[in-house]
Amino acid sequence: MSLSKVKHIVLVLSGKGGVGKSSVTTQLALSLSLAGHSVGVLDIDLTGPSIPRMFGIENAKVTQAPGGWLPITVHEADPTAGTGSLRVMSLGFLLPRRGDAVVWRGPKKTAMVRQFLSDVFWDELDYLLIDTPPGTSDEHISLAETLLQKARPDQLAGAVVVTTPQAVATADVRKELNFCIKTGIRILGVVENMCGFVCPNCSECTMIFSSGGGEIMAGDFGVQFLGSVPIDPQFLVLIETGKRPRYPEGTLVNGQDISTPAGAPHIEEESIKDAASLMQKYRACSLAPIFSKMTADVVSAVQRANLA
User: Fold this and answer.
1) Which of 159, 157, 155, 151 is nearest to 114 (CA)?
2) Cα(277)–Cα(54) distance, rounded to whole angstroms?
3) Per residue in 180-202, pLDDT tens?
4) How far apart are CA 10 and CA 95, in angstroms?
5) Range of the domain at 47
6) Is residue 259 within a helix (H) or strand (E), and if so which, with residue range?
7) Structure confidence by residue, pLDDT tens digits, 30-52
8) Is residue 298 part of a domain?
9) What's the CA gap between 270 and 251, in Å, rounded?
10) Would the N or C end of the chain have less CB density within 10 A of its end CB?
11) Does residue 137 belong to any structural domain of this protein?
12) Is residue 238 in some structural domain?
């Protein structure tokens, strides 16, 4: 199995579509890399692979190797800066054109998931994050069965479950938590995404979708609540254009002032998209400190699980 050199496998799950699993996966990966860990991201959302776009590497093509594929490198490790490497694999890299539809029945999806788990040469990784489609269908069952059968007990660290605050979302996500319980997958914690909106023109962070639903759900299941994440258009601008996030004076997110320092340079050339600098520009994003804490909590949860 190509996962033999992976230390910890973390699934990113949700029973609801459109809650931002890929966004959460991307930011967890960037935060882990900033913390010095070597990271891989495997995108098994076969009908909607968005991870290549999130990292700005849509035009990349995987290299075929004897017996499998080499993942795409987003950036290498930088020991002087204390950052780790980041590599990505997705069906999006294998499609002839970006807009091509994947019209597959269950057995072919199952075979593709198993092939991704066995035929991608990750080499040494501290963490492999697996971005999944919504629901508890063929891909999830194949993923759970394969990992529980073939991965070492200490490899499958568990799942991070993503929801939005509304009751209609948490009702579906509860099914995902039950899926984890039934399949024996440890739940590392719950992330409540889209709990507010960071206005790019003023200093307000408005709770447009309410908040607290994810925390209540985590309490009901007795699992850790990792935190709430607002919608930040500046993060979307960073992903789409590569422009460094900037915030007006007095911008507060989760009680923290993330205003752009007065006199900070505004370089127009930064609008040029550069995957290699994505991690460094992400440091200026309002969501970076939120995910830094979440990442530390996930790492702690994994370590506690290994000691148990």
Assistant:
1) 151
2) 13
3) 999 899 999 999 999 888 887 77
4) 26
5) 6-194+209-232
6) none
7) 999 999 999 999 999 888 889 99
8) no
9) 22
10) C
11) yes
12) no
Domain harbouring 147, CATH code: 3.40.50.300
Numbered residues of the known binding site for ATP = 15-22
| pLDDT (average), residues 82-88 | 95
Cα gap 1→148, rounded to integer Å? 13
The token pair that represents 73 in the structure block: 């490198």
Token couple for 232: 């930040």
Q: Which residues are annotated as a binding site for [4Fe-4S] cluster?
A: 199, 202
For residue 234, give the amino acid letter. Answer: Q
Task: Answer yes or no: is pLDDT of 126 > 50.
Answer: yes
- Taking the C-alpha atoms of residue 128 and residue 41, their distance in angstroms, rounded to an integer, is 6
Cα–Cα distance measured from residue 281 to residue 24, given in angstroms and rounded to the nearest whole number: 17
Average of per-residue pLDDT across 161-174: 89
Kindly tell me the burial class for residue 289, based on how many C-beta atoms sit within 10 Å of its own C-beta (0-12, 13-18, 19 or more).
middle
The Cα 47–Cα 50 span in angstroms is 9
DSSP track, 95-133: SSSTT------HHHHHHHHHHHHHHB---SEEEEEEE--
Q: Has this prediction a pTM greater than 0.85?
A: yes
Q: Is residue 77 part of a domain?
A: yes
Query: Residue 33 has which token pair?
Result: 């890399």
Annotated binding-site members? 15-22, 199, 202
